[in-house]
Amino acid sequence: ATPEEVEESLCLRMEDAIDGLSHIEESKCQAQEGSASLNIKLNKSADIGRMLVDIQTQINAINDFPSEIETPVVQELDWNERVVDVAITANTSLPDLKAYAEDVRKRMKVDAGLQLVSLHNFSDHQLRVELRESSLRQLGLTVSDVASKLARQNIKLPSGNIETRDKNLLIRFDERKITPETLGQTIISSSSAGSVIRLTDIATITDRFKLDENRIQFNGQPAAILTISKNKADDALRVKSVVENFVQQEQARAPDGITLTMTNDLSSVLWDRLTMMVRNGWQGILLVFGVMWLFFSLRYSFWVAAGLPVAFLGSIMLMSLLGLSINIISLVALLMAIGIMMDDAIVISESIAAHLDRGMAVDDAVLAGVKKVLPGVVSSYLTTICIFGSLLFLEGQMGSVLKVIPQSAHCESIEISSPVASLNCT
């Protein structure tokens, strides 16, 4: 079926079926040749499990679907994030380029284990048939006659199923002509003498795309773009590394004239932030150590500076236990929390040093020093909680993004940093 027929027979019926359901924020149905996909966005108050059941019930209740369609499937979509693109360029025709890109896409999934790979740059594939008017007149045929014969000999239909004890096998009749050569062999007319007229005898068949203007060029050459994404459980840096190894191996065995290039590497942003944080962390440790050494002893300077990596590693561990990922937003929160930790450590250390200078024993100086500044440290901690904690109550898309800041800063870094700062000088 054409996309227009799919939209009329599937999309409109499904959209009407779910129209009365609550908690639906947005719905969009995409019609393609032979298939339809209805994407539904729910609001935050929706119960996902209940909505899946309700939507499945409404879809199953549609009684005027075409008889030959497969059973509709309703499932929850995972959250995906783009990681990197692979541009495939070649001095060849666009159909051949798409065929090669589709082959690479399949190998990415099977060989490299990358499940979220999509192909861009191509509209729907089609075979254009240009009939010769003189040939039609000679055979007494019309355009409608030829179209009807092509439709009858170019079908794909489910033909039932075979149930066994272990599995259920679906049977499908597939007689589609998907290349100019096979379509050209379609019999249009035959005579009593046994001669046949095939489509290639009365028409010119070209292999092309529905929208030729949908093209992408990479470095001045036509290109196919493979987009690799990840779900919540995947590591962006690991996915990028797998893609990099696959591209190197594929380029080594690719035919002459075909080039695979990684581009739009969004994981590099995360890597740059991690590198910057590690570099700035070591610089911060050295600077803190040097500044503390100007005013305190070597012992104080060492323990205050040592609190930074201890608190940071503890934060990363707790983030992993709580299911929070390392991303740009959480890294910013960690950097802010580390700054607060260093302030607390310096204040507590200075108070302990002051009591030691008065001749107090080490244990007594630690207890007295911490007790003296405890109200100020706790108040600064509570103030930080109040300021950043308000982000947890933001709603909408912005709230879902910014809530990572208080989660990372409060639940991880600050909660660990304050006890560490108190213990550093013991």
TrEMBL record:
<keyword id="KW-0812">Transmembrane</keyword>
<feature type="transmembrane region" description="Helical">
    <location>
        <begin position="373"/>
        <end position="394"/>
    </location>
</feature>
<dbReference type="Pfam" id="PF00873">
    <property type="entry name" value="ACR_tran"/>
</dbReference>
<keyword id="KW-1133">Transmembrane helix</keyword>
<dbReference type="InterPro" id="IPR001036">
    <property type="entry name" value="Acrflvin-R"/>
</dbReference>
<keyword id="KW-0472">Membrane</keyword>
<protein>
    <recommendedName>
        <fullName>Acriflavin resistance protein</fullName>
    </recommendedName>
</protein>
<dbReference type="GO" id="GO:0005886">
    <property type="term" value="C:plasma membrane"/>
</dbReference>
<dbReference type="GO" id="GO:0042910">
    <property type="term" value="F:xenobiotic transmembrane transporter activity"/>
</dbReference>
<feature type="transmembrane region" description="Helical">
    <location>
        <begin position="280"/>
        <end position="296"/>
    </location>
</feature>
<dbReference type="InterPro" id="IPR027463">
    <property type="entry name" value="AcrB_DN_DC_subdom"/>
</dbReference>
<feature type="transmembrane region" description="Helical">
    <location>
        <begin position="302"/>
        <end position="324"/>
    </location>
</feature>
